Amino acid sequence: xxxxxxxxxxxxxxxxxxPPSLNAHNVREVKKILLSIYKTIYRxxxxxxxxxxxxxxxxxxxxxxxxxxxxxxxxxxxxxSREKRSIILDRLLVTDPVHGKVLITDPTTIKQHAVxxxxxxxxxxxxxxxxNERWSRQFAPKQYIKxxxxxxxxxxxxxxxxxxxxxxxxxxxxxxxSSLHNEFYKKAGRPLQTLxxxxxxxxFKLEIIPDDWKxxxxxxxxxxxxxxxxxxxxxxxxxxxxxRKAVMKIITNRLSNTMxxxxxxxxxxxxxxxxxxxxxxxxxxxxxxxxxxEHSKPIWILLQDLSKAYDRxxxxxxxxAMERVKIPSSCIALILDFFTHxxxxxxxxxxxxxxxxxxxxxxxxxxxxxxxxxxxxxxLLCEINQLNKGYTLSHKWMTDVSKGTQAQLQEQIAAxxxxxxxxxxxxxxxxxxxxxxxxxxxxKLTRAAINKDKxxxxxxxxxxxxxxxxxxxxxxxxxxxSFGAVRFLGVMINVRMNQSLVKKELRAHIRSFxxxxxxxxxxxxxxxxxxxxxxxxxxxxxxxxxxxxxxxxLSLNQAIRSLFKAKTQFPRTAPNAIFHGKMFFNLQDIxxxxxxxxxxxxxxxxxxxxxxxxxxxxxxxxxLQQQELVAVxxxxxxxxxxxxxxxxxxxxxxxxxxxxxxxxxLTFQCVNRFxxxxxxxxxxxxDLLSPMCVRKFRLKLLHIxxxxxxxxxxxxxxxxxxxxxxxxxxxxxxxxxxxxxxLQGIAKAFHLIS
Length: 754
Known about the structure:
It is built from 27 helices and 21 strands. It is of the alpha+beta class.
């Protein structure tokens, strides 16, 4: 039993003489003494707690400084309070037919339920239907593909190729059933590396892999929501054998390089191949929305996401899809051997479950899975493109004003894919429903898992918020059109091209970052690193379709700089150059980062390996050239006649405007198809008239590009793009249709009047 005197001695307090007994005369005095002792001990405990917290803070600060030099990822996770979400499979909430929801904790029962779930959760509920005439024709081997393209696919790997593949394996990755990490093979001696090389060569020669490689471990990871002991709210992370991954990596590299080089896949799926990125579908989607807004054309877009895409892949149809693109039969046999007779076991708190047979699908963690999905999905994309029911972008222009020769460029887009994201585009509801009918037919053939009710619809044909009934195959799905910001591959798109929604998201992102980091004890170097390498790349990605003016960028950057000044104990009036200069803190700013990103994005856009992106970009560039009344491509020479606000709905124009307004100079060496020089004249009309006159009468001037001098009569002639060819008829045409002030401006430019 602890006495008061012992408490006083333990806390080193002044000794107190308590009366031998309590009575009515001394109870108040004793109470005061006890209260004083309590307050002293409480204050002392608070001081000790603060000391412990301070020591922990100092320890974390030192640890972050160490991580800054040795483990940047760990430092970033610590500063941004990032936690790796994981689950411990030691309990499960299951549904019992008698007792309802039941929480089970028995390890054996947990393993049984986990095996049952992961073995059956992706199995279709229907038998595979026969392939109809449409898909039999589409899955037939394509004649444009040459067999010699694949002649080296199944050549056994050389020693250099095998060692390069092993050395390219990433470090610090979980291993499969063999318990041998990537580092083990990378640091192995020459005898072991030779044995693994010989084994890999045997796989190519025999077209099979060892049965041990077909075993894998499943580690359940939580979905974005809290899993709440419900295994249906988890996703399987497959841990494969390292040797298996290395052999498959060689096949993947060879196949993907061949397909990318020769353009084997014709469907517009921008993932799974070298050079594929989200930049291409994002730019294409944005240019279609811009074109629809500028020309007041109707557009219908349905955004769709397939669930369990890899897990639902039918190997029989996958074989047909690979035969369609003429992959050699030996390569097909080897690839399919990776995914047949597989066995998985699940990692739980109570140990490893029994191995179970995998009945369908391809592994999520397999390096070739993205490429196989593109091959698997390509027949649908190609079939929809052949319907000719997509959205059309076109432009018609005059190449020689003296001869009246014209040219036209147009392209149609009906589908954009990125992995399992399918996006259908058309100019009318009827065409969209025709596309969806074909898509639904393909989904039935492949027994794909799709939730039609979760589809998102964008259209500019209505402003009503009532659901629009859409015929999606055999079902009618009411979908409410989205007029606000819709997330598309990480960026926000809006059918009304409302940029304020993106600006609002940027400000909210910065505000969230500031609220998170303002209470963290970090050094100036750590602050700059996190802002430069984490925050700004996130903001720049969100700004891909929304170039911002310099004033807006400075406004966004101000809150970040103010926080940095406060953390470094600089006064608010300190010159900004101290913080942004490379000789000092080198804190980047959004404006400079945006200009650098724009420069790279434009160069990539007009030097892309995608014929579709190049063609659509050229159409948009030609349209800008006509709108701005210039004789060559704006990439080569352009003086904007409006302010930045006018170009906000044309991404190419906005980016070029910002590059010209910034203190940076970017020169484009254009090939002829992008230079687009218009011949037949000697003077550009925008060089002869004042900018105010051009802005005021731009609609009239759209029909006039060049003035050129007649050598015999020395009088000026006007040539119209769409007007009469005769000079006299043209003059009468201009006199009748053009305002007098426009004629005065033209006459003054050529000194025809005083």
